[in-house]
Design goal:
It contains six helices and ten strands, in the order E-E-E-H-E-H-E-H-E-E-E-H-E-H-E-H. The protein has 224 residues and is α/β, with parallel strands linked by helices. It has a five-stranded mixed sheet, sandwiched between helices. Strands 8-7-6-9-10 form a five-stranded mixed sheet, sandwiched between helices.
């Protein structure tokens, strides 16, 4: 299966092409903003490097969130438009599942926790075992997040950590008796968006953005 996948939801922009599970081309760039301007040229570059015509693609993948309000919309809007043009299915996966999947592969652990800084003393939390998602994306205070992990993970298994909050979350898990291993993963990588896309069933509907919290920005004249 030939898959084109993209991520713009958090602090990076990445695109990848997989062919039968093998990476044919990828691009990854850290960027807190500017995803809208970077995505289309990155897609064109990766497709040229892969040596594929867009019509050869069989499936598309994109991250739905959680992430920044603008970043989530950029990736989804672009990939939805491409899916409609090509008449190909578009699969949506969460940023946390993507980072956890890479953490599992990098470390060889059996359980991974993805924890991204959501500000306000909170994190976006998700967790996966090798069997699949264990904790669906939530936004929680740090202490609540540690308690949430302790309800589903065993202290006998090493936890692989991913995400921008990994360093501050590790000590909280340690106090609950967990051994953690920092995978070094900090942002979603489109290679793993594509890998998860390949495993999913064909979607019936277009993916929607996953918002765990209302956007900070307010329209002019609206009441906070």
């Amino acid at each position: 299966m030939k898959i084109l996948a993209a991520d713009t939801a958090l602090g990076a922009c990445s695109v990848a092409v997989l062919d039968q599970g093998r990476v044919r081309a990828r691009a990854f760039e850290l960027m807190p903003r500017g995803h809208a301007e970077a995505l289309a040229p990155m897609v064109e570059h990766v497709m040229r490097e892969a040596g594929l015509d867009f019509k050869a693609l069989e499936r598309l993948g994109v991250t739905t969130g959680p992430g920044t309000f603008t970043g989530q919309r950029v990736g989804l809007a672009f990939m939805r438009g491409l899916a409609l043009t090509l008449k190909r299915p578009l699969v949506g996966v969460t940023t946390l599942d993507v980072m956890a999947a890479e953490a599992l592969e990098r470390t060889g652990a059996s359980f991974a926790v993805a924890c991204a800084d959501a500000r306000r003393g909170e994190i976006y939390l998700g967790a996966c075992s090798r069997a699949g998602t264990t904790i669906a994306p939530e936004v929680l205070a740090l202490g609540e997040a540690a308690m949430r992990v302790s309800l589903v993970a065993k202290t006998t298994e090493r936890i692989a950590l991913a995400g921008t909050a990994a360093e501050i979350f590790a000590p909280l898990l340690a106090t609950r008796g967990f051994e953690t291993h920092d995978s070094g993963v900090r942002q979603p990588d489109a290679v793993f968006v594509a890998k998860l896309t390949m495993r999913e069933a064909k979607p019936k509907d277009a993916p929607a953005p996953l918002y765990l919290r209302a956007p900070d920005a307010k329209l002019p004249g609206t009441v906070p």
